[in-house]
């Protein structure tokens, strides 16, 4: 790791100031993505601003059906939260399937969403549920937030403070883990609100998480696993790697979509 | 004796390991210590045009930046392969030059071109990045078939067409004739996938040059410290043997990858002399992936001919083995004498011919990895047997039984003489434990759940107890493969065993103590096993090839024989009895049939006091022995895998795994079971998960655990283990060896089971979900076309 200066501010304002002053600062949350990158000399921030000392960024609350999860809330906190379990069990289940216990007790929702790893789980829930990413500067709709592989619309020094998930009737998540990394090779998040169904797919897209219109249309008409069978799932734009090529991923999208629906339908 | 042979004694060494008190090479900290970081080639094949170290040299903490020209200029020799294999035309193998630090050429991604020595590890690594290497890229060859293609890039000047040797064994004409007359011929192309070894502890070295004594000490992660010293001295000219001490302290796994002497150890020793500083290097996991010798990587075509009754008439095999960019220490022996000599499997086959070509590619060197050659042979033979049974419509177990060797000793056409075995007995035990009779019902029940259930066999045999020195010498081995031991009885009766074997996970501190406990009737806590230090222990050959029981313990037994003889003489003299009447029993040395006895420790004391020894006897009680085996040993067994495949995703669950092994005498069943468990896990890894993959530019795609899939607990079932024992007639304890069996026997059982489940025999390892799913689609395709 290259030498770096570590800061642990207690307020959002102080964090923001340090981020603004430093030559090349990075926000540090769980560090489970950032620190390995630094150890491998693939990132060399001059300053690290650890936001886990900012009390306002942590915690889970529910208000009128809207679930708000603070940016530094860990995957384990989400997965074990009774509030999440009652408001959106699929989200608790998704968080409980990230990595292993060590990862879940340190990695955070803000870090995961900001990183937008094409194989990460949370982006599927954020897009599938039509969540809002709240930062210290603005509210960003999920549709606008993700901007291709490992890219988001976050500006320099912009800090995610929370993610707000709207209420839905039914939601399910089904993940096919990469055998080696156990990240999502394909993860399908299905959410039903009234007559409309949103389907978000992670792990598979060359540009990261995406919504699948064909599946959405079919499931909006008939929310059942059988409805998935009739949908054409193209392998265009899907990832190919050592573990699965685009055709296999297309197949997995179908199978995971069916399983996500059958778990809740 | 409760601690003796056959007792499930808990491992003595585990307390220190699980409480974090083990002492590994990276735990060694010495005065004046500096750190090494290697500058490694980022290209798979290139000419080094220029090496600019000036920026690095100017950096904080940097002591020296050293290169290959300086290294060779100081007379450090090239890295060698220690087993000479001749091609079938009699010409010697084409060994390309391998310098610990490259001079003009780099031949794989990871090839070291320079080393930075600095005060701290961080400084060394930063400076290594600042070394500027200018490369002229050359065309790259990665895969085995490409290496032999016309016009393939030439990797070593002295190996035209990248061919290292073209070797054969067996009678080609007789085999061709036998197969031509067969009523059924099974033909297959079989690939044995490439693996990264992944011991839990990465490699590490601490090199200390003492200028006052002109003496070197090397702490290193070695499975065979004496061999390391010999090679470092005789071939790499680092220091004469008596001026070099090699210590392999606690070592966290090896699986073969720590047999070899690598560029890093050589460089650290040389650099410590060059800089006057002790030099430490510890590999990180990323470095391990691109520098630890990989395993396997064969492609073969095979033909097996049968008569109408299913008896095998002949087996013909053509194999190409990928050696990577350079010939590692044992590489040449692996696809020849450790592989082709096992192609008879457990079967009576009159005619076998195997042709093996070894080739260079621009990849990490490939060498022995748990099983070393024998997994490749077993995989080939057992895939062929299962396939033949399917093609001939026979029960796969029955086809094996028809062909099992029944009489011993049995000489195979590929120069092995199997000493003993009970192959039907192994099959009986495995079939009973696996409830083969109930399989059809289980398959139907699985089908009702939408799962494809399959069953697969593997009847493996391997050659362990490596090896009779004269025999391997006649086949080209550069060393003898005996083992040494010294048994020291202290004046208080406690015992030290100095062994040339090396424990890096095998539990020698426990099992070696158990055979002493059995023999002398003392508790294992009174026995200390000393190993891994060339200054403490007499020359020994180390641990690999499941040899430490059959060879290492045999040496201890021989030394104990000598101790016992002296003990009896002393006791007879003291107790005024005849030597023939003395027995050692329950910690006492007695005159049989009388109440006259001495406590064990009293004999020890008498030997050292020397106040009253028989006329002419030397004082002391310590004996050494060298044991050279008369034959290999032949562990064998039957493994049965049962799997369930999810046809929608290709995900395969191993729902049942049965292993019935014949290891001969078992010293500690718990440790043996642990070895089998670990071996099966590695076998499952090879069969379903692990794959070292390069892209066409020679970049390792599977260079981290994000992409290289190690077996995890939830990938594995609870195993059902059973044993069937035929005692090895050729060593004093009757042992065969158990360290590699699991890794050898498992892959074909798994692949045979999956192919049975999905109804498509064309399936490559690793059978990942995608691979299995594709095979299912391919099997469906002709149906869909109908
Ligand atoms: C072994 C292992 C297995 C894993 N398995 C999975 C898995 O199965 N599924 C999965 O989804 N993930 C997985 N992960 C990733 C894990 O969830 C990470 O924790 C997560 O991606 C990043 O979160 P973090 O809190 O550690 O972020 P950090 O590593 O601290 O930061 C990541 C990036 O986000 C930025 N950042 C962090 N917080 C904020 C914020 N509030 N506002 C703006 N930018 C911010 C940082 O500057 C950095 O660029 C795994 C990780 C490991 C190490």
TrEMBL record, chain A:
Matches recorded under PANTHER family: XANTHINE DEHYDROGENASE SUBUNIT C-RELATED
Domain FAD-binding PCMH-type: 1-170
Gene3D superfamilies: 3.30.465.10, CO dehydrogenase flavoprotein, C-terminal domain (3.30.390.50), Uridine Diphospho-n-acetylenolpyruvylglucosamine Reductase, domain 2 (3.30.43.10)
Protein name according to UniProt: Carbon-monoxide dehydrogenase medium subunit
Pfam families, sorted: FAD_binding_5
Residues making up the signal peptide according to the UniProt record: none
Keyword Cell wall biogenesis/degradation: no
Keyword hit for Oxidoreductase: yes
SMART domains: CO_deh_flav_C (SM01092)
UniProt entry keywords in alphabetical sequence: FAD, Flavoprotein, Oxidoreductase
InterPro entries linked: CO_DH_flav_C, CO_DH_flav_C_dom_sf, Diverse_Substr_Oxidored, FAD-bd_PCMH, FAD-bd_PCMH-like_sf, FAD-bd_PCMH_sub1, FAD-bd_PCMH_sub2, Mopterin_DH_FAD-bd
A GO term for molecular function: oxidoreductase activity
TrEMBL record, chain B:
Example of a GO MF term: iron ion binding
Source superkingdom: Bacteria
Keywords: Molybdenum, Oxidoreductase
Pfam families: Ald_Xan_dh_C (PF01315), MoCoBD_1 (PF02738), MoCoBD_2 (PF20256)
Keyword Oxidoreductase: yes
Domain Aldehyde oxidase/xanthine dehydrogenase a/b hammerhead residues, every copy: 19-139
InterPro entries the UniProt entry points to: Ald_Oxase/Xan_DH_a/b (IPR000674), Ald_Oxase/Xan_DH_a/b_sf (IPR036856), Ald_Oxase/xanthine_DH-like (IPR016208), AldOxase/xan_DH_MoCoBD1 (IPR008274), AldOxase/xan_DH_MoCoBD2 (IPR046867), AldOxase/xan_DH_Mopterin-bd_sf (IPR037165)
Transmembrane feature ranges: none
Name recorded for this polypeptide: Carbon-monoxide dehydrogenase large subunit
